[in-house]
């Protein structure tokens, strides 16, 4: 007997602060009951009124919703703000332990996260022998070691770097545990206990049809090196696709600041001579050298952060009459492949999870302009719904330097042409979760 597709979807957006955590509950009639999918569970900055055990409280709320069964987990990519909640401890009472006890049947991660793939494996079999794909997977794992060392060294220079630390924002990309090793291991363990799927563009995951009958899941990213050679790169400027502020003289504020960071006043904040310190004639020069080194280290970390974002799983979900798009933190090099091959499929998206917490390069203008359900009128039926998880206080950058997240210019567009729901709504009262319900039977 054919199973009737779900008639309703409840999307729970948890107030993790700066991070992502979404629980999708597909409601079926009859004996099928509810089916649950958790997409990401991480945080790098808690909301202002969050308690000390925020992630445990969220894990327990998820347990209350799903009972003893979580059907699928999607970890879009390895960054702390997407997977830190999966971390465990020796006591067995960490949020990752709580989620693990729900015994997910399926754990989906990007192909770059397959820990067991040997260096000489052939990996995803299409295109190149996987020497190139494996090289990227291993490089991504090793680059986090470099990022950790760079952050540790940069931490010794906060006074010298001043506002530049906020501008580059080391904690945005790294925090203390750059590798998120405990969370990575727990995700692998859950996948081994149930079923693990390490996906790439175009991957088919047959178990999804069994777990969520009547729902279609299209994996639109990340591509492999064989599918798109420059996916590991990141272009810092893209006037056509990114949400840059207006330029003057062809140079943006952020680029100008990066280029002139070591200039300015002749002797700003010159040090008072101390016995045993640098000679007075060398102090300004030594200070500038240390500052420049710190800035260079943080830029290296930012570049590594961008490469990791481009490994994000992009998931297009079609349930009944609705399409939902969850892109993790995918940036242009990841998006470009999907937009080249699937632009038509993305025209009628009903629900868009705003990429990378509203940053300038994670919602390409090609994608945004292609959404047919945008509308200036708030009363328009079937108006596009956009959902953004972030914090009120800019976690990364600031408007003065054309670098804030969430991006003011993007947020203005989201508010003007879609029904924007953001976890910032939860901050005033310290609420844990925002629930949005969608009727899957009405066009």
Task: Summarize the structure in words.
- The strands form two sheets. A seven-stranded mixed beta sheet has the order 6-5-4-3-2-1-13. A six-stranded mixed beta sheet has the order 7-8-9-10-11-12.
- The two termini are 26 Å apart.
- The protein has helices at residues 54-66, 80-83, 95-100, 131-154, 158-161, 163-168, 170-173, 181-193, 206-211, 253-260, 280-309, 332-342, 365-370, 408-417; strands at residues 8-14, 21-27, 34-41, 72-74, 106-110, 195-199, 215-221, 314-319, 322-326, 351-353, 385-388, 419-422, 433-439.
- It has a single domain, classed as Ribonuclease Z/Hydroxyacylglutathione hydrolase-like (Metallo-beta-lactamase, Chain A, 4-Layer Sandwich).
- Helix content is 33%, strand content 16%.
- The radius of gyration is 23 Å and the shape is globular.
- It is an alpha/beta fold and 443 residues long.
């Amino acid at each position: 007997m054919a199973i009737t597709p779900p008639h309703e979807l409840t999307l729970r957006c948890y107030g993790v602060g700066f991070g992502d955590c979404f629980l999708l509950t597909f409601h079926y009639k009859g004996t099928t009951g509810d089916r649950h999918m958790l997409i990401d569970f991480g945080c790098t900055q808690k909301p202002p009124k969050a308690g000390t055990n925020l992630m445990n409280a969220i894990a327990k709320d998820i347990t209350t919703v799903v009972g003893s069964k979580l059907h699928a987990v999607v970890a879009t990519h390895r960054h702390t703000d997407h997977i830190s909640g999966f971390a465990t401890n020796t006591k067995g009472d960490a949020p990752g332990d709580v989620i693990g006890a729900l015994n997910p049947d399926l754990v989906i991660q990007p192909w770059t996260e397959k820990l067991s793939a040997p260096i000489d494996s052939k990996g995803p079999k299409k295109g190149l022998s996987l020497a190139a794909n494996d090289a990227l997977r291993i490089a991504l794992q090793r680059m986090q070691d470099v990022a950790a060392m760079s952050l540790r060294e940069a931490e010794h220079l906060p006074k010298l770097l001043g506002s530049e630390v906020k501008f580059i924002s080391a904690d945005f990309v790294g925090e203390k545990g750059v590798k998120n090793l405990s969370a990575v291991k727990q995700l692998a363990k859950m996948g081994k206990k149930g079923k693990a799927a390490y996906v790439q563009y175009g991957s088919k995951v047959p178990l999804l049809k069994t777990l969520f009958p009547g729902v279609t899941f299209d994996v639109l990213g990340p591509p492999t090196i064989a599918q798109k050679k420059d996916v590991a790169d990141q272009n810092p400027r893209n006037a056509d696709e990114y949400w840059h502020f207006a330029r003057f003289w062809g140079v943006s504020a952020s680029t100008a600041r990066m280029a002139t960071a070591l200039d300015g006043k002749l002797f700003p904040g010159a040090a008072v001579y101390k016995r045993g310190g640098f000679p007075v004639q060398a102090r300004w020069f030594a200070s500038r050298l240390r500052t420049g080194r710190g800035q260079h280290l943080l830029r290296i970390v930012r570049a590594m952060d961008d490469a990791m974002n481009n490994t994000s799983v992009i998931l297009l979900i079609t349930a009944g009459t609705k399409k939902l798009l969850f892109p993790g933190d995918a940036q242009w090099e990841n998006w470009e492949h999907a937009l080249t091959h699937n632009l038509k499929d993305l025209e009628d998206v009903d629900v868009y999870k705003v990429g990378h917490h509203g940053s300038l390069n994670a919602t390409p203008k090609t994608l945004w302009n292609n959404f047919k359900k945008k509308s200036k009128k708030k009363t328009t039926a079937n108006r596009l719904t956009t959902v953004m998880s972030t914090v009120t206080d800019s976690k990364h950058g600031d408007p003065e330097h054309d670098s804030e997240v969430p991006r003011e210019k993007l947020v203005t567009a989201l508010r003007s042409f879609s029904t924007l729901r953001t976890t910032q709504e939860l901050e005033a009262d310290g609420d844990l979760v925002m629930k949005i319900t969608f009727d899957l039977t009405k066009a």
